[in-house]
Amino acid sequence: MFTLRDKYAIAGLGETAYTKNSGTTVLNLAVEACQKAADDAGVPVEEIDGIISYNFGDSVPAIAVATALGIPNAGYAVDFAGGGNAANLITLTAAAAIEAGLAKSVLCFRAMNGRSGFRLGGGREFQARGITQYTAPFGWITYPQAMAMWCRRHMIEYGTTAEQLGSVAITFRENASLNERAMQREPITMDDYMASRFIVEPFRMLDICLETDGACAVLVTKAEHARDLRHTPVYIMGGAYGGGPNQGEDLFDAIRWPDHSQNYAAYIADDLWRSAGIGPQDVDLAEIYDCFTYSVIMQLEGLGFCKPGEGGPFVASGAIKRDGSLPLNTHGGLLSEAYIHGLNHVLEAVRQLRGEAGPRQIPGAEIALTTAGAMTCGSAMVLRA
Amino acid sequence: MNDASKPIPVADSDSAPFWEGCREHRLLIQRCASCKTPRFPPMRACPKCHSTLSEWFEASGRGTVYSWIVVQHPVPREVYGQDVPYVVALIDLEEGVRMVSNIIGLDPRAIGANMPVEVTFEPGEGDVVLPKFKPREAP
User: Fold this and answer.
1) Which stretches within chain A are classed as H helix?
2) Alpha-carbon distance A66 to A242, whole Å?
3) Hey, is the C-beta of A227 within 8 angstroms of any chain B C-beta?
4) Which residues of B touch A (CB under 8 A)?
5) What residues of A are in contact with residue B12 (Cβ under 8 Å)?
6) Does A135 reach chain B within 8 Å, measured CB to CB?
7) Residue-wise pLDDT tens for chain A (385 aa)?
8) Number of other residues whose CB lies within 10 A of the CB of residue B3
9) Closest approach of B89 to chain A, Cα-based (Å)
10) Is residue A162 less than 8 Å (CB to CB) from chain B?
11) Cβ atoms of residues A163 and A297 within 8 Å
């Protein structure tokens, strides 16, 4: 369990524009986001000595970015294998590395040309090796297909409906309309949602997040160091990473997962809340990993915001709107802002806690939750102003 | 690599008996030789008792539908375009393991949760034979 409550902080934020075609390399995107995060914190590049990222073979190594940034001594450079499950893992790991004396100031980034370059699911090997020999030959290849399978099981067990999924897409699009960075800002109605074509039943087009070219970065450092920097620090209260038993051989493998109506969130909830010293009732807002509308429902249930099976009615009740009891994905989320594999959720949470979210600011926001992941493993973090 | 082909399962030292069995139209499943717990996919050690002794047995081929999807927008389109809509399902075998497969032989709208199914074998790419599932009468 993460036990470094309030000892570390996020001191800087950086991101590129979010586009469908960046026109530049992934390395350049990563460097731009990292430079901005260091500048935002007011930390000279010379003082940065750690850099962490995660990827699916769709990015650039941390050492490449350290080199391109001109970091003189990138002593702690780590690349995790992972996508949307790892966005909070890297910030938690940065804190752990600093605690262990491996680094002092750590840049955490995610960068990819996720639309113009490497598109997830589109380029799988056509020789199906390892776990994919039992899945891909049956035409089970893409992440929307995988998550739709989980969603169906929730519908079977709890009667979760298309309209409930739609309410997630509609709410996040409303939030995106207030966010100048968001790729999709046009409001949508329930009629629009129901009319959007099926990609893989039960998922329609509007259940599925965007594909994005772009990068995000945050700078993690000691709390006492952060207090001397440019912005009010945002403290890491707690966090957790993991899942249950039988997580499988890769993020796609759920053959051995016992219950597809609940995901990693149910397994990390106790560690998460215990480490932060609070419970779900204390959270002012949450940025929940929304690679698909349905993944939000499973995480809300798993983390204790509602009971198993009540996620559908909860999201449809209005509770997740900006003026509801639990504002969610205030920037529009992965569904409407951009799909930077969850690190853009961390940036939005920090902006909200700094009071810098402009027209989408949630008044009085002091504690925020960020989550990352949809299936058998994932990570979550609690931040406070 | 043939751009127009479906993914070809490449047998490895763990999975070779499974794919050999499919060629003989037998659904072979690995189990622990010590505690007899079946496991799928095949792997070195028993997740229950951790024994590395294993054996194979022929499953009944009967199971039920745990969950399913209907693929309408195929990826890659050039490979799966002519198949849509097609059904992928998680099948719980009577023996206690779960598999991914296709359900064939009925309208996707007719599929329901826990529907009884049974294995059938269809040719895949090259000399591969794939285990697929079709509806069966409830016991």
Assistant:
1) 26-41, 62-69, 87-99, 143-158, 162-176, 190-195, 223-226, 264-276, 293-302, 311-316, 333-336, 343-354
2) 28
3) no
4) 1-3, 5-12, 15, 40-41, 47, 66-76, 80, 83, 85-86, 88, 90, 98-102, 108, 113, 124-125, 128, 130, 132
5) 129-130, 133
6) yes
7) 889 999 999 999 999 999 999 999 999 999 999 999 999 999 999 999 999 999 999 999 999 999 999 999 888 999 999 988 999 999 999 999 999 999 999 999 999 999 999 877 655 557 898 999 999 999 999 999 999 999 999 999 999 999 999 999 999 999 999 999 999 999 999 999 999 999 999 999 999 999 999 999 999 999 999 999 999 999 999 999 999 888 988 888 889 999 999 999 999 999 999 999 999 999 999 999 999 999 999 999 999 999 999 999 999 999 999 999 999 999 999 999 999 999 999 999 999 999 999 999 999 999 999 999 999 999 999 999 9
8) 8
9) 8
10) no
11) no
Report the C-alpha gap between A286 and A214 in whole angstroms.
22
Q: Phi and psi of A206, rounded to 5°? A: -80, 0
Single-letter amino acid, residue B96 = G
Residue B122 · residue B22 · CB < 8 Å: no
The interface predicted TM-score of the complex, written ipTM, equals 0.96
**Cα–Cα distance between B12 and B30 in angstroms, integer?**
14
What 8-state DSSP symbol labels residue B7?
P
CB neighbours of residue A228 within 10 Å: 11
Identify the burial level of A154 via C-beta atoms within 10 angstroms of its C-beta, where 0-12 means exposed, 13-18 middle and 19 or more buried. buried
* Residue A270 amino acid letter: D
Query: What tokens were used for A286?
Result: 């949450």
Q: Record the tokens describing residue A91, joined without a space.
A: 């910030």
Say how far apart CA A95 and CA A383 lie, in whole Å: 13
